[in-house]
Specification:
By secondary structure, chain A is of the alpha/beta class. Chain A contains 19 helices and 22 strands. Chain A folds into two domains: 202 residues, Glutaconate Coenzyme A-transferase (3-Layer(aba) Sandwich); 310 residues, Glutaconate Coenzyme A-transferase, CATH 3.40.1080.10. Chain A is globular and about 75 Å long. In chain C, 15% of the residues lie in helices and 34% in strands. The C terminus of chain C is likely disordered. Classes of the chains: A alpha/beta, B alpha/beta, C alpha+beta.
Chain lengths: 548, 300, 94
């Protein structure tokens, strides 16, 4: 007779094995490594947070300290490969297989280990895609999560940096897996309950807050005139004509410059209330001036940002906050918002080829995908119309009858023609192809595919790929904004001029933009201190950003 | 907002001069068209700048003739090289010969490593030239509020000036934060703790401890007003001045030598809420400073 | 350092009477441009001093583009410290 509760039975075994190292749900901290060795089994599928920003760093250290003779060949499924311990477990043989999404801080080491055969790669995913698989074929058997605090029943407060936790716990706990949480402190009463205690099996009092990295702060003092020019182009050449109200900004200086130009350049163009009202966005400090000037109605956040907590709590009309007043972020829902409820994604990349594929992979660095492929893709499951979506759809496909013609999400790549180290943005062959060969991958790791990309913005102008009808036109449109890179210098001058007449390429002067106007006086804030002042002192920048 | 207030911090050397002097009054000495560039940087495959990172010349400030110098903090961190130093030395010699006051907009990390010997010699020559000019009755007014601060040899020269005008962003020191950390350890001084750096070397602290005389907003017009006022103040340099400065420094170290952090010094000065100082707006701070600061007025 | 010289025909003559103009600073992401009057009104002489080696083709294209499109005739232009990320049309106006 088949048994139908084997997974629950195994969980009960794990709990019984772990009970020896805990008092109720509370793991005795000095026994952490023994505890982990008791509740884990070789070959387990383990989800470690491992998020974009917050890290269950004490649990990660414990995991890495286990005896590989006892626990080995784990299959790690995690959003972010960020801490050294996340890769140490592969070095020692504790872990063998990896499915992940983002590896920015470890991009060099993970590349080395992948090439060296130390890691068996499942796949690199986008965040939402990985979360989706938690519910299908990558359901974790054990989840190691991070929360701010717990009460004695195991209820958890995850606070502003809630991020992936509810998604991870939902899949693991209701999939009959074991949930172990590291918390900064145990309290009698939580500010609010983010994760109910009956979904949590063990809690470790780490005695200190979990590790969080400020990823989304861009210092206005570092913004260049070229970035300001591309921001002006984006606002006048895209946001205004398409009337983009609902959007996501990928992180970067070009998009941060757009945020700082809304109260100044955007105001001059009379665009307040007409663009940039609803956002799926992390709490970028550079959005503060626009919020304070009344541009923004609502923002949903993937995570939080160090230093922004008080500001967010003071603006509950704008941000999603709990009954305790602090931010509630949720990466899975924000990613879904970006996919279906936004009309534009705009972000930056490292390489674009002649078809319009973009990638951040280079020969020696594998940073993964994060959320960009999800945000930067046309959601074909979308059904509700909006003006920008319909307008883009009509540009892409003018011949189909309107009632049968889907719209298109605006997916924009923005950047300067030459990036860091004089590396050109535009290339013949993406580094991603070289990587696919090296690692014998089925697919080259493409961040945003050509057929999703609708526009490219550089200091040379805007290329509208929606209006291109042939591969040739597409190629020349890209060369036409590639400036003095080799790709740009290889343009068919006559054809590029014809594309310009058809407005497939628009130069600054075509949009009435004088590059000499692109100077730092146009920024609504020119320093981190300006941002702090704009927030009325509520924004508390981390020390590394101060110059006062 | 920032369209009306011209940020001193954001401005380059030439913009600072233009903001300080009467319109059209500036005549540049050894201008870029002379191409007096560094003879050393090419060896290191580093690009030269035609004015070698310092702009010097004559002008009038509200009608008063002055000689003026402004360092370009964005070029090699405003650091002193052979030509850069020589231009300032020459300007100070001219000041003594003409009996004309000098205004110097500092923005420097110190001496260029690539021109170390020439740079160090230049610092010494400039300090001597400042002293000689001042003995002859010339005022030497220093202004500090740029990205590079006023470090190394620049800090030494600043210490010789008759008046120092500083903004919040400005920093004055000899040794830089990273070097202090390397030599004394991160527990003693964490150079990445920028709040600590500014508490220790920044404009507000320098004002409170007598290391700078006038605190202004990050506003070119405010720097101009303070320079004008400084030009109207008497300034002498003789043995009495030096004795007074020696006494002031001895008193200062006796009074504050045990302080572990600038907030301890500010508390000892009688300030009730020293922790509020860094975030205090400029006008409020200037008022507070006027009441509580250690002055060096008779010692400069 | 690479010093590159260009002396090319300039279809559009520069106007104005100013003897010289200076724009920019030699710094990361920046460049210094000194514009002076030259001899022949239909030629433009450009000297580029750069630490970014091996971009001759790029400077060729930039110079040709600039001189072709702007009023550059009769000017002598000296550029210090450009890198490919700062090779867009110089902002000097004489």
């Amino acid at each position: 007779m088949r048994q139908w509760n084997t997974r629950k039975a195994l969980r009960e075994e794990r709990i019984a094995a772990g009970a020896g190292f805990a008092t109720g749900k509370l793991v005795r901290p000095e026994t952490l490594v023994d505890f982990l060795e008791a509740v884990l089994r070789p070959g387990d599928r383990v989800c470690l947070e491992g998020d974009n920003q917050k890290q269950a760093d004490v649990l990660a250290k414990g995991l890495a300290a286990m005896n590989p003779a006892r626990i080995h060949d784990l299959h790690m499924v995690q959003s972010g490969v960020v801490l050294p311990e996340h890769l140490d477990v592969f070095d020692s043989g504790i872990a063998k297989r990896l499915d992940f999404s983002y590896s920015g801080p470890q991009s060099a080491r993970i590349a080395k280990m992948l090439f060296g055969g130390k890691i068996e790669l499942g796949a690199i995913h986008t965040y939402l895609e990985l979360f989706a698989r938690y519910f299908v074929d990558l359901t974790p058997q054990v989840a190691l999560i991070a929360a701010v605090s717990a009460d004695r029943h195991g209820n958890l407060y995850t606070g502003p940096n809630t991020e992936d936790t509810p998604t991870v716990v939902e899949a693991t706990s209701f999939g009959s897996g074991l949930v172990i949480a590291q918390v900064g402190e145990i309290v009698d009463t939580l500010p609010r309950v983010d994760i109910p205690g009956d979904q949590v099996h063990f809690v470790l009092d780490a005695g200190k807050p979990f590790y969080v990295e400020p990823l989304f702060t861009r210092d206005p003092a570092a913004m260049t005139e070229t970035q300001i020019l591309t921001a002006m182009l984006a606002i006048k050449g895209l946001y205004q004509p398409y009337g983009v109200r609902r959007l996501n900004h990928g992180i970067g200086f070009n998009t941060a410059a757009i945020e700082l130009l809304l109260p100044t350049y955007g105001e001059k163009l009379g665009l307040k209330g007409k663009i940039c009202t609803h956002w799926a966005l992390n709490p970028h400090p550079t959005l503060i001036p626009a919020i304070e000037a009344g541009w923004v109605e609502q923002v949903h956040c993937f995570g939080s940002e160090v230093g922004m907590e008080d500001y967010l709590a003071a603006r509950p009309d704008i941000f999603f906050t709990g009954p305790d007043g602090s931010l509630r972020s949720n990466r899975a829902f924000s990613q879904t918002a970006g996919l279906y409820a936004c009309d534009m994604f705009i972000g930056s990349t490292l390489q674009i080829d002649l078809a319009g594929h973009s990638s951040t992979i280079t020969a020696n660095r594998i940073a993964g995908f994060g959320g960009a492929p999800n945000m930067g893709s046309d959601a074909r499951g979308r059904r509700h119309p909006s003006a920008p979506w319909l307008q883009a759809g009509a540009e892409a496909d003018p011949d189909t009858a309107a009632p049968l013609r889907r719209g298109r999400k605006l997916v924009v790549q923005i950047g300067e023609t030459f990036g860091e180290g004089n590396a050109p943005l535009f290339v013949e062959t993406l580094g991603a192809l070289e990587l696919a060969e090296k690692l014998d991958l089925d697919l080259a790791p493409i961040m945003v595919y050509a057929d999703d990309t609708t526009h490219i913005v550089t200091e040379e102008g805007i290329a509208n790929l929606l209006l291109c009808r042939t591969a040739d036109e597409r190629e020349q449109a890209i060369r036409g904004v590639a400036g003095f890179t080799e790709i740009g210098r290889g343009r068919d001058k006559a054809m590029v001029e014809r594309l310009r007449e058809r407005k497939i390429i628009q130069r600054p002067e075509d949009l009435g933009i004088d590059p000499l106007d692109a100077n730092r006086n146009m920024l609504a804030a020119r320093s981190i201190k300006d941002l702090m002042l704009a927030s009325g002192g509520l924004y508390r920048p981390p020390s590394r950003f101060r110059n006062w | 907002m920032s369209n009306f207030r011209q940020s001193w911090y954001e401005a380059g050397a030439r913009e600072r001069i233009a903001a300080l002097v009467d319109t059209g009054s500036f005549a540049e000495f050894v201008g870029p068209e002379q191409r007096e560039t560094s003879p050393h940087l090419g060896i290191f495959d580093l690009p030269a700048q035609f004015d070698d990172g310092i702009v010097v010349g004559s002008a009038t400030l509200d009608g008063a003739p002055v000689l003026i110098a402004a360092q370009e903090g964005r070029f090699m961190g405003g650091a002193f090289g052979e030509v850069h130093g020589a231009k300032l030395t020459g300007l100070l010699h001219a000041a003594k010969a003409l009996g004309r006051d000098v205004v110097i907009a500092f923005d420097t990390g110190g001496v260029r490593l690539q021109e170390a010997n020439a740079g160090e010699i230049a610092i010494a020559e400039i300090m001597r030239a400042v002293a000689e000019a001042r003995v002859a009755g010339v005022r030497v007014i220093g202004m500090i509020g740029g990205r590079a601060g006023c470090y190394g040899g620049g800090g030494l020269i600043a210490g010789c000036c008759s008046t120092l005008i500083v903004s919040e962003q400005g920093r004055i020191s000899v040794t830089g934060p990273e070097v202090i950390e390397t030599n004394m350890g991160v527990e003693e001084f964490d150079s990445r703790d920028r709040a600590l750096v500014w508490r220790t070397m920044g404009g507000k602290h320098r004002t409170l401890i007598g290391g700078a005389d006038v605190f202004v907003e990050d506003d070119a017009a405010a720097f101009r007003g303070a320079a004008r006022a400084a030009l109207a103040r008497p300034a002498k340099l003789d043995l009495d001045t030096l004795a007074a400065e020696q006494a002031r420094l001895e008193r200062r170290i006796a009074r504050f030598g045990d302080a572990a952090d600038a907030t301890d010094i500010w508390r000892a000065l009688g300030i009730d809420d020293p922790k509020a100082i860094p975030d205090m707006p400029a006008t409020a701070f200037a008022t507070l400073a006027a009441q509580y600061r250690e002055s060096a007025d008779d010692a400069r | 350092m690479e010093i590159l010289h260009f002396d090319i025909a300039a279809p559009i003559a520069a106007a104005g009477t100013r003897k010289m103009a200076l724009v920019g600073v030699v710094a990361s992401g920046n460049l210094e441009v000194l514009v002076e009057r030259g001899d022949a009104p239909d030629r433009c002489a450009i000297e580029i001093s750069t630490a970014a080696h091996g971009f001759r083709d790029l400077w060729d294209a930039v110079v040709a583009d600039f001189v072709g499109r702007r009023a550059a005739g009769g000017l002598r232009i000296a550029i210090n410290g450009p890198t490919p990320c700062r090779c867009g049309s110089p902002r000097a106006s004489a």
